[in-house]
Write a structure and sequence with these properties.
Elements: H1 14-23, E1 26-32, H2 39-49, H3 56-62, H4 68-80, H5 85-101, E2 104-111, H6 113-120, H7 125-142, E3 145-153, H8 158-172, E4 178-184, H9 196-204, E5 208-213, H10 219-227, E6 232-235, H11 243-252, E7 256-258, H12 260-265, H13 277-282, E8 287-289, H14 294-297, H15 301-312, H16 316-328, H17 334-346, H18 350-354
Parallel strand pairs: 1-2, 2-3, 3-4, 4-5, 5-6, 6-7, 7-8
Helix pairs in contact: 1-15, 2-3, 5-7, 6-8, 16-17
The chain binds hypoxanthine and zinc ion.
Residues 30, 32, 184, 212, 234, 292 line the site of zinc ion.
């Protein structure tokens, strides 16, 4: 990726660049299955499940929030409307259609197993069977691959996280599509330390470790995630405030799952121009772009790349480099990584396309 000269100025032709970005093969590493569900889909699921189906207005009202706490509640409200294996099959398949439209070749998708267990106390296996059916149909129809990461909700505490991670370990033996674990939720209520032993246990079981870190709290949240062994960090928004941390992230090349629109929409980053993504990139951090919860934020991965170009002056060649990062930081086997990296490298130059 580094061999190409970077064009001196940001790409400016919006429509042509949008088309180029949508065609650029890339991976999405921070995407919540439940956060891909559109209000219209909730209505359609509800028609199947409920005697008094949800109206579109009522569904849309679930998606309204004004701050990070409200966002977490909206996410939970959506998740609670997902009931049957068929629901999970349908949303997985619809997610993959959306990924295809954004030019995503591969996605690593968080599923909030923590919410299923903690709030709903229902068995996860049947729902997962639905997800797997959706995934296989989606792979076949859209040519997109998906791997699963089981996400716990940190403010439900280590006992709940233990159930989620142990379920991931147990099910991984049967399903090679399960590759890792993570914690999301409200960092203001707990850092990563209480999960240290559970992370060690998950690693022992052969799972990869991710963590949302430094989204709503300072750099200490990122240090603690690194200290318990997180291999990939979600958001890492506050790393900018700590030069020593930046040094460590650069030296270890710990992949950052950056979610620009998410941070602005949840109020974690007040103005988009203040987002540290360009600063991180220029300082040599392993930056990847991601959409997090596209149905809640009104974005998708192609839009995130375009935003990076428009607001932060990333050139088309920078965007190609970010796509390369996303594949390198993925949990795919080396042969598949190489194949995708080659596709990214061979993708035409933006200028050639525009001419
Ligand atoms: N942060 C914390 N919790 C979440 C997120 C997030 O980005 N998305 C879904 N749950
Ligand atoms: Zn997230």
């Amino acid at each position: 990726m580094h061999a190409r000269p970077h064009s001196p100025s940001p790409a400016t032709d919006d429509a042509a660049l949008a088309q180029w970005v949508r065609g650029l093969p890339k991976a999405e590493l921070h995407l919540h299955l439940e956060g891909t569900v559109a209000p219209e889909t909730l209505v359609s699921l509800s028609r199947r499940n409920d005697e008094e189906p949800l109206t579109l207005d009522a569904a849309q009202s679930l998606y309204r929030y004004t701050d990070f706490t409200g966002f977490l509640l909206a996410f939970k409200a959506i998740t609670e409307r997902l009931r049957t294996p068929e629901d999970y099959e349908e949303i997985t398949y619809a997610m993959m259609r959306g990924l295809r439209a954004a030019g995503v070749a591969h996605a690593e998708v968080y599923v909030s197993v923590g919410v299923v267990y903690y709030w709903r106390r229902i068995e996860f296996e049947p729902l997962f069977a639905g997800m797997e059916r959706g995934r296989m149909r989606g792979e076949h129809d859209f040519g997109v691959s998906v791997l699963w990461i089981f996400d716990a909700v940190r403010h439900f505490g280590p006992e709940e996280a233990a159930r989620v991670f142990r379920k991931a370990a147990e099910m991984q033996a049967l399903h090679s599509s399960i590759v890792g674990i993570g914690v999301g939720g409200d960092e203001r209520r707990t850092g990563a330390e209480p999960f240290r032993d559970l992370y060690a246990e998950a690693r022992q079981a052969g799972l990869h470790l991710t963590a949302h870190a430094g989204e709503t709290v300072g750099p200490e949240g990122i240090w603690s995630a690194i200290n318990i062994g997180a291999e990939r960090l979600g958001h890492a928004l506050s790393a900018e405030r700590d030069d020593e941390l930046i040094e460590v992230l650069a030296q270890k090349q710990i992949p950052l799952e950056i979610c620009i629109t998410s941070n602005v929409r949840t109020g974690c980053c007040v103005k988009v121009e203040d987002h540290p993504v360009r600063n991180y990139f220029d300082r040599g951090l392993m930056v990847t772009l991601n959409s997090d919860d596209p149905a809640l934020f009104g974005s998708d991965l192609a839009e995130e790349y375009l935003l990076a170009s428009r607001v932060f002056g990333f050139t088309a060649e920078h965007l190609r480099e970010l796509a390369g990062n996303s594949v390198e930081a993925s949990l795919l086997p080396p042969a598949r990584k190489l194949q995708l990296l080659r596709q990214i490298e061979q993708y035409p130059d933006f200028e050639d396309r525009a001419r």
